[in-house]
Structures are given as C-alpha cells and as structure tokens.
Amino acid sequence: MDFPKIDPVMFEIGPIALHWYGFMYLLGFLAAWGLGTYRAKQPNSGWTAEQVSDFLFFGFIGVILGGRIGYVLFYGLEFWAKDALYIFKIWEGGMSFHGGLLGVIAAGWYFARKNKKPFFDVADFMVPLVPLGLMFGRIGNFINGELWGREASADFFLAIRFPQDPAGLLRHPSQLYQAIFEGLILFLIVWFYSAKPRPRKAVFSVFLIGYGVFRFGVEFFREPDAHLGKVISWLTMGQVLCIPMIAIGVYLLMKAYQEPKVQPNK
C-alpha cells in the first residue's frame, strides 16, 4: 500500500509551524516527566518532583549533544571530514540513539554527583522513563517517511511504499516495529520489572539488554544507511553498537544479583 498522506506540519500560525516530529518529542518529554513525577511520589523513592525536572533538563541536553556527536562519530565521519562544521548542522538531520544514551549517562553521572546520589540509583530510577520517548520518536520518523525498512514482498500486508524513497519499493515500516518493540514492549518490561525492589544496577541492566536485543532484531528489517551499508559482514552499524550494549547489560545484571543489598525502585 502507499504511504498515507500525512502533512508533516500539524499547524502554522504566521511564521510559527509545529511539526509532527517535534510534537512527538514533546510527547516523549511529557511522558517522561509524568512517569518520573509519579515514581518520585511513591513511598521511599528517595526522589522529589523537583529532582525529576532537574534531571530531565540535564538529560535533554545530554540527548542532543550525545545524539549528534554519536551520529557524527558512528555514522557521519566522512561528512565531517569534508565539512568541519558538519557536527553543528543538526538541521540537516542525523542523531544516534547510542550516542544519545551515552549523553544521558554522562548527564546522569553529573546529576548524581551534584545531588550526592549513587550513579546507579539515578540510572535505575530514570531508565523506565525512556522507552515511551523512543516510541514517540519512531512514530515521528514514520510520519516523516524517513528511516524506512528493507524491501518487503508485495503480498505482505504491512508493506508500504514511501514517497521519499527514490526506488519506489514496497518496504517494511521498520519505524513502527521499533516503536512497538524498543518503545511500548520495552517500557512494559522495564516498568513492571522496576515495580518491585531490585538490586542496584538491575533495572538499568534490563533496559540495556532489552533495547539491545530488540534493536538488533529489528535491524534485520531496517534499511541500512546508504553511505554505510553493512559494516561487518551482515551486521549493520546499529547491530554492531548493540553488541557491547547487550554484553555490558548482562555483565551488570550478573554483578547486581551477586550483591546482597536490595534497593527500592519505585
């Protein structure tokens, strides 16, 4: 089927235009703020609503800086080599989840020091707030008709022809696959896992493993970046970056359950 006709601009008021993509990021931020405030109000959470807001501010900066720097290092070095200012040209597109994650981790480390909290307490508290933002972001990618999937068979009921695709092929809507698995399903797993007291590091570890596994799998349906293709044998860059993510998650989860002290993660 053909891609549904969706105007990327929700509405315009004079020179001001609100795009669906930006609106999805706003929904992701509001979801994180609402969930974080709810968790902070639970008994013995060790958090206040003000601390949640402060962290989200630092986290937003970490996402932007880390996402852009990560994209340039992981996906766009050849563009940077040709244009030294490319790293600053965010309006041309190009953000990396793995880079954004590193940026948020750095923000979490700074926030933890500033508020005299153990880093993994901050990480365990915050990661359940992330997946819904990822879900909304991937829906934004779909609406924009970008980051589409690999070619699908003509009889596959979800196959879509994206107007931005110069080849005009029927493709998997991999953005929606990511929204479901890396967003909604991962949220349910991490949220309900964190609902009971877990060892410190455990919730963060489950997030790393869950995202890494889901992203690795969905990459088989996502079209590799045209300028990179498959970087190692049949592996895409996204899959290569997920391998250490999964390994670190498994290691931290094993370490978490070797430590006797249990931390509340409400």
From TrEMBL:
It is an enzyme of class 2 (transferase). It is found in: Cell membrane. One of its GO terms (cellular component) is plasma membrane. Pathway: Protein modification; lipoprotein biosynthesis (diacylglyceryl transfer). InterPro entries: Lgt. Coiled coil: none annotated. Pfam families: LGT. One of its GO terms (molecular function) is phosphatidylglycerol-prolipoprotein diacylglyceryl transferase activity. GO terms for biological process: lipoprotein biosynthetic process. Keywords: Cell membrane, Lipoprotein, Membrane, Transferase, Transmembrane, Transmembrane helix. A 1,2-diacyl-sn-glycero-3-phospho-(1'-sn-glycerol) binds at residue 138. Its EC number is 2.5.1.145. It is a multi-pass membrane protein. The chain crosses the membrane at residues 20-40, 52-75, 95-112, 176-195, 202-221, 233-254. Catalyzes the transfer of the diacylglyceryl group from phosphatidylglycerol to the sulfhydryl group of the N-terminal cysteine of a prolipoprotein, the first step in the formation of mature lipoproteins. HAMAP family: Lgt (MF_01147). Belongs to the Lgt family. This is Phosphatidylglycerol--prolipoprotein diacylglyceryl transferase. It comes from Kangiella geojedonensis.
